[in-house]
Records
---
Amino acid sequence: MEPLLAELRTAVGAGAVLTDVDVTASYRRDMMPLAPHGQPLAVVLPTSTEQVQAVVRACAAARTPIVPRGAGSGLSGAANAVEGCVVLVTTKMNAILEIDPDNRLAVVEPGVVNLDLRDAVEKHGLFYPPDPSSYDWCTIGGNLSTNAGGLCCVKYGVTTDSVLGLDVVLADGELLRTGRRTVKGVAGYDLTKLFVGSEGTLGVITRATLALRPLPQAPATLVAAFGSTAAAGVAVSRVVTEGIVPSLMEIMDRTSIKAVEQYLKTDLNADAALLLCQSDSGGEAGRRELAAIEQACVAAGADLVYATEDLSEGRDLLTARRAVLTALEVYGAWLTDDVCVPRTRIADLIAGCERISESVGLRIAVVGHAGDGNMHPTIVYDPSSADEFARAQRAFDEILGLGLALGGTITGEHGVGKIKREWLAKEIGPVGLRVHRGIKRALDPENLFNPGSMFELL
Amino acid sequence: MEPLLAELRTAVGAGAVLTDVDVTASYRRDMMPLAPHGQPLAVVLPTSTEQVQAVVRACAAARTPIVPRGAGSGLSGAANAVEGCVVLVTTKMNAILEIDPDNRLAVVEPGVVNLDLRDAVEKHGLFYPPDPSSYDWCTIGGNLSTNAGGLCCVKYGVTTDSVLGLDVVLADGELLRTGRRTVKGVAGYDLTKLFVGSEGTLGVITRATLALRPLPQAPATLVAAFGSTAAAGVAVSRVVTEGIVPSLMEIMDRTSIKAVEQYLKTDLNADAALLLCQSDSGGEAGRRELAAIEQACVAAGADLVYATEDLSEGRDLLTARRAVLTALEVYGAWLTDDVCVPRTRIADLIAGCERISESVGLRIAVVGHAGDGNMHPTIVYDPSSADEFARAQRAFDEILGLGLALGGTITGEHGVGKIKREWLAKEIGPVGLRVHRGIKRALDPENLFNPGSMFELL
């Protein structure tokens, strides 16, 4: 292995090749406790596309796998090291290279933190929508690789909807430029959207051209409390069928509400479900949207609806939603699922999670993006108990099965990674799997990039 | 060849296999006069996925290429027959299988006409955005294969932005299901968006799950006349930088204006450029948007701005834009380009087209989607003159070069087809081309589907 380390040091400089096990330990895994992870041979931190190319060529020659990694905020183990690999960390490639307000686009390196980009474009009256929960530390590169979502998706879509083009270092070290700087373009296959969400299995993204939107108006906020999840589900369906597109529509189930009440020492005045909505349309349009949402909630049997145009009050109302995961940590460690179901099946999903919770004897809090059906049932367990961990795993899998049974998908935004491979095979079937393997082989015949993520190449 | 014809007759029924040269002639080419086309062995019109599978298996066994085709409204020759092929026409698979207003989606067969889908979902208060000019006769299958755009794109994106999932018959006759019915989903590679825009080179789409939007408000309309294209370009840039997103923003240059004035026997009161804009936000928001567009036009030096909330008056104002191609036919045949440039370069593109027009000695009218930079410079020539046709071809190519030189793409919505292969190679470069070929080989190793469209496999 020594010759490879020497080549890596030549490629990126000795200081950017980490091999001390105590140091590399923190690059071994992401935030998903279930996923397997190995010990990397080295962690490299390149600062340019050319350095990435040199690292890829060296690893290809040595037949040493590369696991690309951003900040490590992922929840599927996609960035987890495989034994003896090189972890290629893009966090030092963190320049915002260009912001072009006239064409509403930005060109960035992959290590730019999501929040830093948001802040930088906001100064130009512009908006980069994707806002995963980890937006204050996750990187654009990771967002691209997982096709990250967030709270914005109900109105503004996911990461792929904001990408115009990519620079990608391929398995032979060549640089591929996909896409364009224009709003539209159909020259050739849509390689950009093929690389987005490919979890680092097809190449290393070293630059991205991102589409920006005009900065929305300050949001008005509404919360609605329900005595049953079924009623909350009906409210969501009504909002959808009545053609309202809120800029945020989140749901919390009974278990989430109770956890947050205990943690924040407050009364959320909701028995079974809480719906939190925002409109960022501004002015009369925003008021009309919020009034229509209020009507939909009342018609669905909400116990209580409260709306405000006050920004800081609105932020306070969202505190409950943002506090869920932290609140659950009072009870133990958590493991979060990411199923996405048709919007009409949200209440069924929550009911199913209650059944699974009873069956495994563990607390499961359901919180999620009601506006697009992307739910995060979160299982709480004692990490020191092997038995509880096993039951948590069982619940995790049963929720995936439930999501599929409800006509949904196993992952709305976290990805497949190294934890849901069998489930991906179930969801896409043998023909789908064969096509995936064919594309992987076409782009990475030696299985250099992130082997074993998403699927085994065989 | 007889055994294949017998198998095709078994597969789809004798009446759905056309071999009479007089009949098949109308399936030889689409609407692009420049593209090469051959004589098909047969034209088949299957009515089900199973029939498509049988046709594909029979053709694969006989090593006879398949060219998938919708209505034939394409403008790149992508649906043109290659010599001795089977043209697989999807127009008889024209059922709208499902409209689900609660989840805002529709499931359709590929032969559904765009307008029929629009009308059907409108009854549920829903909206299918993609609206190519041929929307009253083009099919969804063709729209998917070319990733079609239209006037809606500035606000609502292109076809790929409205697709959730596809059924695709692959080269071995197996059925691939991509995507999902949920709003979000990241399970595996985004195969859906890989097939969208692949111009029938990777498989035959037999079903699509489409995302719908709430029906927008009735549009308010504005026209602005400019004494110079530069001023009109400044107006477009101002609209973009001020964060306004009109639902339509079209531009006509001097040559388009003159042609339409002569054809409609009217005075458009515009010397050099006409901008036509709509807002479908409704109410106060719509008025605010239109007022902001008006301000941007005035500030850019518009000679005249006129706005109306009256629907039928608005429709009348758009008549000029819709009449351009018909008006040009008074002078001869037309050949339309489809470059897309950064929105800040629209005036440069128009100026460049004026230079090319002078240089080749042919009329070139520039009309296009100013809101997204997708321009259709349209060359008028005498089809009976080989010399004029050759000059038209030269102009066509020079405009593609101009589009690339301005930082744009050779095609915003019409596709590469059999007419821009060399230009695709120029735009995406050797690495891009290699990746395209790798993906094509992975999915269609025998080059069964639409060989020679987009690129030669080699």
Note: The two ends of chain A are 25 Å apart (CA to CA).
---
Amino acid sequence: MPPFDVPEGDPFGTHNLPYGVFSLPGSVDRRVGVRLGDHVLDAGAAAAALGSPYVSLLARPSLGPLLAAGRTAWSDVRRALTAWLTVPAHQEAIAELFHPLSSVTLHLPFEVADYVDFYASENHARNVGQIFRPDAPDPLTPNWKHLPIGYHGRSGTVVVSGTDVVRPSGQRKAPADAAPVFGPSVRLDIEAEVGFVVGVPSERGRPVALGDFREHVFGLCLLNDWSARDIQAWEYVPLGPFLGKSFATSLSAWITPLDALEEAQVTPPQRTHPLLPYLDDTGPEAEPGGYDLRISVAVNGHVVSEPPFSTMYWTAAQQLAHMTVNGASLRTGDLYGSGTVSGPSERERGSLLELTWNGRDPLELPDGKRAFLENGDVVTLSAWAPGPDGVRVGLGEVTGRVVAG
Amino acid sequence: MPPFDVPEGDPFGTHNLPYGVFSLPGSVDRRVGVRLGDHVLDAGAAAAALGSPYVSLLARPSLGPLLAAGRTAWSDVRRALTAWLTVPAHQEAIAELFHPLSSVTLHLPFEVADYVDFYASENHARNVGQIFRPDAPDPLTPNWKHLPIGYHGRSGTVVVSGTDVVRPSGQRKAPADAAPVFGPSVRLDIEAEVGFVVGVPSERGRPVALGDFREHVFGLCLLNDWSARDIQAWEYVPLGPFLGKSFATSLSAWITPLDALEEAQVTPPQRTHPLLPYLDDTGPEAEPGGYDLRISVAVNGHVVSEPPFSTMYWTAAQQLAHMTVNGASLRTGDLYGSGTVSGPSERERGSLLELTWNGRDPLELPDGKRAFLENGDVVTLSAWAPGPDGVRVGLGEVTGRVVAG
């Protein structure tokens, strides 16, 4: 039964078990899948074959029902899957329900409700501040160390990894120009981010406490927040990014459950400013909050950066607490991005804006220089996290090709 | 048959026919309703009783299927409804399918996909600029006359008229304070807006032209974009409003079809700056684009302002063209707000921020002074538009009471 014989150390072994949604060739039926090595298990069919009660959560066209089921169900289903994949009698019953990854089509694994994007990397915020406000006394805005800055994005244009990204057109205006001009963006960029997927909803008027993060958030994925810097620069004062971002946001096809990332938890960077109680994660009983995820950014297969998620100043738990502290409710399928992940060193920056210092220092790629993205360029983010016994937990990848409009 | 005997000049006569979703006492079933006078017709039951093919669009728990059906279906269904309500044989068949408005519960009439809010009133933008940037050479930002500024809001907290609004808590910081403080907002405000409801989706990568507005937008409603000015002021640089807005946005229960507003179309204000072609509505063949909607803002039943929608600089058609010009796709149920509607005179301002000049000149209400909203205050927006033969088209109302958190 080859699917079960995942090589030792495979980042998609039974310690991982990320969820996705796939369809088979010639079929429009979408099915919940669990990745094992380079195969996908038809999880709903497996549950049915084994007479599992989880068929109601898994034999569905979306992860929605599983996401809504809550932490206890998430752990129970994960335990059941582990048994199915490791106990010989169960293995036998489901052996025919695997498909090679290369043979299936992967879909957006859940319907995105609200999409929020944060700005939580201090290195990124400092780089952006230095690039755009070189004369400011502090590259960080006065609020940056007091709250995780965020804004709502367009959930209707969140697309699954592998989807082509059409170069957006829009208005841009250089400071010296008398009037804006219209045309395809000439400063198309990426932002390497981690996305967090909300499962359990909350009531309007009831903030979610810092310590309840794991009760609401099911897991995480990789996210590329494509950005047209020229469109963004002209439009964003005073109400923030809009068309510079809303044309596409790419998501990895696999959602890694938080349960697979126990060993990846780390303490976030030292807090340099006192935090208001609802954000304060410095107490002795606070959970670590950070995650040690090693991201890799490749353009046309050439790695240009390795942003370390462990350096993020604001954690996903703080972001959730902040996002709801005004009484805003959560829905199943809410997605929030960490913001661009940038480490302290040059090769750890999560955007071309920073990597090329706004185009001043183009990257030298095997196929030529790049200040920003050209049509035909393929951007791929991938990542892994430390798992049990030194094994890596693979976070899959999010990839997309830029095509002309 | 009293329901049919709507008094002459009733703003909810057969020239109007707005759509909503209601349920009957003791039932959780939601039904599409059409308002006639102070009754609601169970439109799905009527279609079934008359053997109409539109039962598939109307016997549904949401307006979604009707919204998705497109302009031809919208007009056909409207013609059919008019016949049902005016031809005696049809009247007889549906006479028992009316319910007094006072006996039903009204619900959010469709699932909000993406929610975008614009900033399209020049009077409003100038007032805000003068209040917050008194020393700036121009109260408008440099981009204001070149594009309709907008941003994404939280669709998960859009609520139907009548829903209580919990006063949000959050961070605020006065310029003189050393650090932010946390607590209930002390500057809770309203924004009187008109909301536009997208029916027909568009493809990613394919902008919607100015002239295709009516092919995609089904109708409009009233919208109160509740705003916590103190939270907003501290958080909004550099990525725009977030928690100052995301706690609640109230929508009127009735969606008025554009077909009911033919007589209300007006030419928008003179364009003072040349527009890029995708936004240019000044050509001889351009549709008027504006709507003459007379809005009324009441606090605890006392009218404090009457903002005229005809003064909006940017039209809903321009907003749709702009929102999609970067290739962003539309979904059925997308909702976009016009931005606060403010006319040129003091009694035409659509927010307390402007009406009280940021609290400097409190309103004198029968129950006391108001700089911003107090707990228990009920805010009601209502509106009408000119209809055929001098009859008004009622836009219903959106109301909400502020309650303590």
Note: The domain at 115-403 of chain B is CATH 3.90.850.10 (Fumarylacetoacetate hydrolase; domain 2).
